[in-house]
Q: What sequence folds into this?
C-alpha cells in the first residue's frame, strides 16, 4: 500500500517527465536555430535575416508535439510559405517598397491576412498562423527599410528564416530518439486497459458484495478510477491525427494503435453504464444474484481481463479479432424477470455487461454512417452567382477572415504609428496567436500580456547576468523552458500565457545586435499591448454577445434538441437515422454548451450580473446523463431488433407503446417548458410586457391564459406505478412469444434496460426542473419563481 506522499510522487512523475521531454525538444530546436544564426557560416546568416521568426516557428510547431505533429506542422509551414512568399514578391514588385506608407502597409497586411484566412478548415491553424506572421514581417519590415528592401530577396529571407525553424523542429524530434505519437498512444492504451480492467473488476465485486457498505466502497473506487480513464481516452484521441503522419518506419504499428483506440472508446460507455447501475441499486446483494449468476459475472470479468492482457502484450493480430467470450452461463431463468422498479438497476447492470462483451467481440467499424445532415449536405443544388456570393458572405469562415484581417491590420496601423522601427511587434503577437474558435478574449489577452511581460523581463535579466558572454547567454533559457512547460499545463496561465512567456524570453536572449535589451523590452511590451488591445476591440465588435448570454441561448437550444430526441423515442421501431442522429446531435450541443460555460466562467463580470457557473454546471451534468441514457436506449432497441430477427418473427411491441407514451408525456412537455423559460431575462419585464399586450390578463384575478405546456413530472409513486405496469406488460410479451430460455433472457435484459433509461430520464427531468428554478431565482432574486406560471405568461405573449 502506497503512502499518500508516495502516491503524490507517483502521480507527479508523469507530469514532470512530460514537461522535461517537451522542454528538452524545445531547447534542442531553439539551440539548433541559435547555432545556425549565431555561429553559422556568413552566407547562411545573411539568408536567415529574421532569426526571431525562426524561434517563433519553432514554438508554434514543436511545443509539446510528437513527431507526427511536427511533420504536419512542417508541412503547414511549407504550405504557408508558398501561400505567402510568392504573392508577397508580386505585391512588393507591383507596389514598390519605397511607396509604402503606414496606411498602405496596414491595408496590404489586412488584405493579405484575409486571403490567407478564407480557405476552409482543411487548412490547419498552424499553417495560417505562420502565414500571418510572415505577412506581418514581410510588409512591415519592407516599409521600415523603404527603398533598400529588395522585392524578391526580402520575402526569400523570410522564407529562409522559416525553413531554419522547420529544419530545427524535425531534428529536435528525431534526436536523440524519435518522439513518436504511436508509442505514446500505445503506452496510453496499456494504461487505459489496466484502468478499465480494474474498474470492471471493482464493479463486479460491488455487484456481488454481501452488504451495502462493501459494495459502496468498491463502487467509489471505480468512480475515482473513471476520472483518470477519461483523461487517458482524451489523450489517446488527441494523438490520432499525429499517428496518420508517422508512416514508413512504424507502418506495422499504426493499424494496431488505431484499432486499439477505437476499441477502447467503444468499451468506455458500457463500463460507465455498470457504474451508473451500481449507483442506483437500492440494497446489496441484489435479489437476482445467485451462485450461477455470480460465476457467470466472474467468468465475464476474467475473459475480458485476458483480452486486456493480450492488448498489453503487444499482439495486434490477437487484439484485432477478439476471442468469443464464453457467456452461455450468463442467462436468467424466467422467474428472474424484474418484478418492480427496484429490480431495474440490477438488470441494467447485466445489460451493460452483455453490451461490453458485444463491444469486445465485434470487429471495429470502418467508418460511422453519415448523419442525415451530412447526407443532405452532399446534395449540392445549382445556385446562381448572387446566391453563392450571399451564402459565402454569411459563412463563418468569411466572418473569421474579416475579423482576422481587421485585427492584424489595425494592430499594424497603430503599432507603426507608435514606432516605425518596432511596429512589427504589435502585429506579430496577434498573427501567431489568432484563434479560429471563440475564446474568452479578455482573459486570454490578459494571459498573453502577462506571459509576454514575464518572458521579456526574464530575458532582460538573463542579458544582465551574462552581459559579457553574449554568445552563450542562450543557455539561460533551459530552465525557462521547463518553467514554461509547467505553466502551460496550469490553470493560471494555460497554453496562451505559456507560449507567450517562451517567445518573450527567446526573442530577447536568442538574438544579438538589436540594441539595448531594456529599450527593446519596453518597446516590445508596449507594442504587444497595442496589438492585443486591437484584437480585443475587433473581437467584441464581431461578437458583442457575452459568453454568459450565449450559454443561456445554447442551453435553450440544447433543451430543444433534447425535446426532439425524447419525442422520437420508440420501442423496437422508428427511423434508424433519427435514432442514431438524435443523441449525436444532442452530444454536439452539450459539448458546445460546455465551451460557453467554461468561457463565461473566465470572463470578467464588470457591471453585469455574475455568471452562475455552479447552476449551469449542474444543468450540464444532467444533460450529459440524459444524453447517455438515450444512447443506452438505442442499444437496447438494437438488441430487441436483433433478437427479433434471430427468432425469425417480428415482436409485437405495440403492447408497450402506451406505457412508453405515458413516460414521454411526463417528460417532453416539461423540457419544452424549460426551453422557453430559461430565455427569460427578467420576470418583472415579462409581467410588464404581458400587461402592455393584454391588460385584461390579471394573475391575481385568475384571468391568465392557460398554457397547454404543463409540468408533468409527478410524484415518485405514480412513476413507480407506471414502471410496474410496463414490467407486467413486458412479462406478458416475453411469455406470449414463448421465449423460455436464452432468447427470453436477451429480451428481458433489453426491455429492462429500456425501462431503466425511461425512469432515469424522468428522474433527470426532475433534477433539471430544480436547476432551472435555481437559475431563474438567481437572476430574479426579488421574484417568486413558478415555472408553470412563467410558461403560461410566455405562451400568452406568443398568442397575442
A:
Amino acid at each position: 500500500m502506497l503512502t499518500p506522499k508516495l502516491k503524490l510522487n507517483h502521480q507527479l512523475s508523469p507530469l514532470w517527465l512530460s514537461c522535461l521531454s517537451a522542454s528538452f525538444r524545445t531547447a534542442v530546436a531553439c539551440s539548433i536555430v541559435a547555432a545556425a544564426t549565431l555561429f553559422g557560416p556568413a552566407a547562411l546568416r545573411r539568408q536567415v535575416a529574421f532569426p526571431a521568426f525562426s524561434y517563433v516557428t519553432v514554438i508554434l510547431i514543436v511545443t509539446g508535439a510528437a513527431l507526427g505533429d511536427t511533420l504536419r506542422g512542417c508541412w503547414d509551414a511549407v504550405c504557408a510559405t508558398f501561400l505567402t512568399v510568392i504573392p508577397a514578391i508580386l505585391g512588393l514588385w507591383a507596389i514598390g517598397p519605397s511607396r509604402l506608407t503606414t496606411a498602405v502597409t496596414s491595408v496590404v497586411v489586412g488584405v493579405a491576412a484575409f486571403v490567407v484566412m478564407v480557405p476552409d478548415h482543411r487548412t490547419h491553424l498552424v499553417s495560417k498562423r505562420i502565414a500571418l506572421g510572415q505577412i506581418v514581417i514581410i510588409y512591415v519590415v519592407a516599409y521600415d527599410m523603404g527603398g533598400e528592401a529588395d522585392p524578391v530577396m526580402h520575402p526569400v529571407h523570410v522564407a529562409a528564416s522559416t525553413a531554419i525553424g522547420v529544419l530545427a523542429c524535425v531534428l529536435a524530434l528525431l534526436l536523440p530518439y524519435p518522439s513518436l505519437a504511436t508509442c505514446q498512444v500505445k503506452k496510453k492504451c496499456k494504461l487505459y486497459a489496466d484502468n478499465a480492467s480494474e474498474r470492471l473488476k471493482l464493479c463486479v465485486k460491488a455487484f456481488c458484495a454481501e452488504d451495502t457498505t462493501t459494495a459502496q466502497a468498491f463502487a467509489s473506487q471505480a468512480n475515482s478510477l473513471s476520472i483518470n480513464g477519461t483523461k487517458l481516452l482524451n489523450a489517446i484521441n488527441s494523438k490520432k491525427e499525429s499517428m496518420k503522419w508517422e508512416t514508413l518506419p512504424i507502418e506495422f504499428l499504426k493499424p494496431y494503435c488505431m484499432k486499439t483506440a477505437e476499441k477502447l472508446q467503444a468499451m468506455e460507455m458500457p463500463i460507465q453504464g455498470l457504474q451508473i447501475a451500481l449507483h442506483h441499486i437500492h440494497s446489496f446483494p441484489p435479489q437476482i444474484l445467485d451462485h450461477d449468476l455470480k460465476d457467470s459475472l466472474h467468468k465475464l470479468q476474467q475473459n475480458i481481463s485476458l483480452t486486456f492482457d493480450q492488448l498489453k502484450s503487444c499482439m495486434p493480430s490477437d487484439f484485432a479479432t477478439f476471442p468469443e467470450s464464453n457467456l452461455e452461463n450468463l442467462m436468467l431463468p424466467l422467474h428472474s424477470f424484474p418484478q418492480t422498479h427496484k429490480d431495474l438497476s440490477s438488470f441494467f447492470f447485466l445489460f451493460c455487461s452483455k453490451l461490453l462483451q458485444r463491444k469486445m467481440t465485434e470487429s471495429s467499424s470502418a467508418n460511422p454512417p453519415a448523419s442525415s445532415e451530412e447526407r443532405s449536405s452532399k446534395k449540392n443544388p445549382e445556385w446562381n452567382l448572387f446566391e453563392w456570393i450571399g451564402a459565402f458572405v454569411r459563412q463563418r469562415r468569411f466572418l473569421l477572415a474579416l475579423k482576422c484581417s481587421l485585427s492584424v491590420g489595425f494592430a499594424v496601423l497603430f503599432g507603426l504609428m507608435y514606432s516605425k522601427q518596432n511596429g512589427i511587434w504589435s502585429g506579430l503577437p496577434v498573427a501567431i496567436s489568432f484563434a479560429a474558435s471563440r475564446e474568452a478574449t479578455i482573459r486570454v489577452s490578459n494571459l498573453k500580456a502577462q506571459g509576454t511581460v514575464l518572458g521579456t523581463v526574464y530575458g532582460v535579466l538573463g542579458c544582465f547576468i551574462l552581459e559579457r558572454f553574449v554568445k552563450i547567454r542562450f543557455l539561460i533559457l533551459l530552465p525557462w523552458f521547463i518553467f514554461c512547460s509547467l505553466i502551460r499545463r496550469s490553470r493560471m496561465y494555460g497554453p496562451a500565457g505559456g507560449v507567450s512567456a517562451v517567445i518573450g524570453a527567446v526573442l530577447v536572449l536568442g538574438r544579438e545586435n538589436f540594441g539595448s535589451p531594456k529599450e527593446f523590452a519596453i518597446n516590445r511590451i508596449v507594442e504587444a499591448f497595442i496589438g492585443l488591445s486591437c484584437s480585443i476591440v475587433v473581437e467584441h465588435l464581431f461578437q458583442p454577445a457575452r459568453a454568459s448570454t450565449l450559454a443561456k441561448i445554447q442551453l435553450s437550444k440544447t433543451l430543444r434538441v433534447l425535446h426532439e430526441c425524447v419525442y422520437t423515442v420508440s420501442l423496437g421501431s422508428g427511423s434508424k437515422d433519427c435514432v442514431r442522429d438524435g443523441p449525436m446531435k444532442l452530444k454536439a450541443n452539450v459539448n458546445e454548451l460546455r465551451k460557453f460555460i467554461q468561457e463565461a466562467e473566465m470572463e470578467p463580470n464588470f457591471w453585469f450580473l455574475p455568471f452562475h457557473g455552479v447552476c449551469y454546471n449542474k444543468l450540464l451534468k444532467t444533460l450529459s446523463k440524459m444524453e447517455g441514457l438515450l444512447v443506452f436506449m438505442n442499444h437496447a432497441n438494437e438488441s430487441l431488433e436483433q433478437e427479433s430477427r434471430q427468432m425469425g418473427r417480428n415482436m409485437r411491441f405495440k403492447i408497450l407503446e402506451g406505457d412508453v407514451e405515458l413516460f414521454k408525456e411526463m417528460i417532453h412537455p416539461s423540457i419544452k417548458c424549460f426551453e422557453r423559460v430559461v430565455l427569460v431575462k427578467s420576470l418583472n419585464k415579462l409581467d410588464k410586457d404581458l400587461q402592455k399586450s393584454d391588460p385584461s390578463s390579471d394573475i391575481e384575478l385568475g384571468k391568465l391564459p392557460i398554457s397547454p405546456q404543463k409540468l408533468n413530472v409527478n410524484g415518485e409513486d405514480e412513476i413507480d406505478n407506471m414502471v410496474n405496469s410496463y414490467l407486467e406488460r413486458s412479462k406478458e410479451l416475453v411469455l406470449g412469444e414463448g421465449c423460455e430460455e436464452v432468447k427470453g433472457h436477451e429480451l428481458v435484459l433489453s426491455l429492462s434496460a429500456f425501462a431503466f433509461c425511461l425512469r432515469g430520464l424522468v428522474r433527470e427531468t426532475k433534477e433539471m426542473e430544480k436547476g432551472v428554478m435555481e437559475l431563474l431565482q438567481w437572476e430574479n432574486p426579488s421574484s417568486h419563481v413558478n415555472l408553470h406560471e412563467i410558461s403560461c405568461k410566455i405562451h400568452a405573449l406568443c398568442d397575442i
About this structure: The chain has three domains: 15-178+392-542, 181-245+247-361, 547-799. The mean pLDDT is 78.
